[in-house]
Amino acid sequence: MSKTLAPPRPTPTGRATPRGALAVRLFGERLSLLVRPRTVAVCLTLVLVGVLALAVTVTVGDYEISLAAVPGAILGYGERLDVFFVQGVRLPRALTAIGVGAALGIAGAVFQSLSRNALGSPDIIGFTSGAATGAVLVILVLGAGRLAVSLGAIAGGLLTAAIVYLLAMKNGVQGYRLVLVGIGVSAMLGSVRDYLLTRAELTDALGAQIWMIGSLNSRGWAEVAAVWISLAVLAPVLLALGQRLRFMELGDDTAQGLGVPIRSTQIWALAAASALTGAAIAVAGPIGFVALAAPQIARRLTRAGGTTLVGSALTGAALLAVADLVALRALAPTQLPVGVVTAVIGGSYLIWLLYTEWRGGRA
User: What averages of pLDDT result for each successive group of 10 residues across the chain (363 residues)?
Assistant: First the structure.
């Protein structure tokens, strides 16, 4: 027996909304939003997970601090050691983890949307590798400081994005072509990094190798400012393109029929997402698999039919905050690079994702 689907519910203005969604209109119909209660609940839960991870990160360690003493320590009151550890060590690290996770989550969602492929994340298609190569080049060749390393990572990510886009462009940019070209460029950039490491001084090579694992150790307020300013500038650009990206997931012909400027949307989205990826890598190194896993986890949690940029950002923030807490306390007092933890989590997720793609006949 066939199952009859319930029609969309009419809104007060006569337009239909998807079942289970609420239409919210502001400023006299000039701004309208579709709000799905499940998506709101998932986002609030992710915010709670991130806040709890931050609270635990700030309070636990070899020197424990009570939760009640944290607000005073943030404001500079209370025990001197409390203030030192909260303001100078733990809070900057936790805020950096949340900011980097959000940046990687939203950038990964954009790349997966453009490629229309669950494997189309910065890790897989070369943009992370480009940013890492730019930073390593600055570290080993120029011997410059953190600002130059940050600029090198952003420049490397943008240059790689331009190369991959131009090589993949043939009657438009197809998802599978973008992924394949990105994998090839990533392999070439990996060989460049390996060559630079073999030609560098031992101490410089060791420092670059540790950075390439991805770590939040010793991150301070300068890194917090860098990643959050990047989010404040670039995330609104990507959110403004969110509706176009969802239309483009239906196919270029359909999106063009709906009035979406395909080429300009691809260029702006790639540039903003690549710059955001570069900013995150400049702060914490090439932390793997967060950009790959966060958008897919967000989509499954919210049961959204398309890309959810806000959900991906919150998922990435919560995922990296929890991973960093594990890196801090799993082998205490030894602190692991957070990239090791995300590699274990993300590698397991990638195996599962490839298996489900194969079972579904999509790989």
Answer: 42 48 58 71 93 92 85 85 87 93 93 81 80 82 73 83 78 68 85 83 76 82 90 92 83 78 85 87 86 88 82 93 89 82 81 74 59
State pTM to two decimals.
Answer: 0.83
DSSP, residue by residue, 95-117? HHHHHHHHHHHHHHHHHHHHHTS
Task: Report the distance separating Cα 280 and Cα 272, nearest Å.
Answer: 12
pLDDT given for residue 56 in this prediction: 92
Q: Give alpha helix (H) positions in the chain.
A: 37-59, 70-75, 80-83, 91-115, 122-125, 127-137, 146-168, 175-199, 202-213, 221-240, 242-248, 252-257, 262-284, 290-302, 309-329, 338-359
- Provide the 8-state DSSP code for 18: -
Q: At what angle do helices 221-240 and 91-115 cross, to 10 degrees?
A: 30
d(CA 172, CA 252): 8
Which tokens is 112 given?
Answer: 């997966």
DSSP element (H, E) containing 173: none
